[in-house]
Amino acid sequence: MSVRKIAVLTSGGDAPGMNAAVRAVARTALSKGVEVFGVYRGYNGLILGDIFPMNLRSVSDIIHQGGTMLFTARCPEFRTEEGMQKAIETCRKNGIDGVVVIGGDGSFRGAQDLTQRGLPCVGIPGTIDNDIACCEYTIGYDTAMNTCIQMVDKIRDTAQSHDRCSVVEVMGRHAGYLALNVGIAVGATSIIVPEVPFDFERDIIQRMKKANETGKKHFIIVVAEGVGGVMELAARIEKETGIESRATILGHVQRGGSPTVRDRVLASEMGYYAVELLLQGKSNRVVAIQNDRIVDFDIEEALRMKKPFDFELYNIAHQISI
Ligand code: ADP
Ligand code: F6P
Fold it and tell me: What is the 3-state secondary structure (H, E, C) of the chain?
């Protein structure tokens, strides 16, 4: 059966570049004569029928904007059979025969549930956490990393002026990819991530003391959200070293802002590719990038995969931050 009408939604935490992906989905479909509905607030919009027909101009002037013009949400009702049936009914009533879901792994589980109930779905990875195993770079990750380093560079100015230690928490939910890359990029003395068990004395205090002996007087410690506890950590460091310490939780600033070139290009390619897959009659696929090539995986297989942590990069970061 050929696909005549598709819907596009953004779900879970927003990520810079989601708009560029929405634009690519809409423009690709429309250019191929396929009708497109925008769905507001993720799966909520499907349940409530909060959808609107898109035209070429619906997605004008959004490629450079952070956030998502479709809004996003976490929708507990969608996880019930009743919620899913309501979502399917909205699609049936409007003749929607394919859905592009832009979000993280939770959103892909929802896409899989819809596909299993007869509504073909394709997922596009949009999350600053970069925690989708089959995909080397998720949409939003590059922008978030760049935002983080700008913020930490500013923190460094004041830490340096006061001879302080700054303990900075970056997002990533249960994953330390953002923290690792930000940590190496800002020259952090220690990078603390959930993937590597850490010893306070060995991994923070000893490293600080050693660097202090060679004249270093200010320090940046990057901590992943999945480890957390930065307030307590800063207090402990101050007590142990006598070096005045401050904690900063970067928070939602990391999710905003204009997407980088990399995120815009990635989002555009992935949006195009997702529509192509639906038009080829494929479903339950997630679009990904590997070795600079856009590829796709079965969602189930993708969700089972484990993303390796880059221990080499972790070791390099610590070796050169002395
Ligand atoms: P992300 O997509 O960023 O991982 P969430 O985990 O919050 O974000 O998931 C987003 C939404 O996807 C949820 O609010 C819910 O509507 C849907 N979802 C999450 N997990 C499932 C699941 N196991 N089955 C069906 N839908 C799910
Ligand atoms: O998944 C993106 C993310 O920003 C995580 O890094 C973080 O743990 C979570 O979402 C925060 O979510 P909320 O929007 O509920 O504050």
Answer: CCCCEEEEEECCCCCCCHHHHHHHHHHHHHHCCCEEEEECCCHHHHHHCCEEEECHHHHCCCCCCCCCCCCCCCCHHHHCHHHHHHHHHHHHHHCCCCEEEEECHHHHHHHHHHHHCCCCEEEEEECCCCCCCCCCCCECHHHHHHHHHHHHHHHHHHHHHHCCEEEEEECCCCCCHHHHHHHHHHCCCEEECCCCCCCHHHHHHHHHHHHHHCCCCCEEEEEECCCCCHHHHHHHHHHHHCCCEEEEECHHHHHCCCCCHHHHHHHHHHHHHHHHHHHCCCCCEEEEEECCEEEEEEHHHHHHCCCCCCHHHHHHHHHHCC
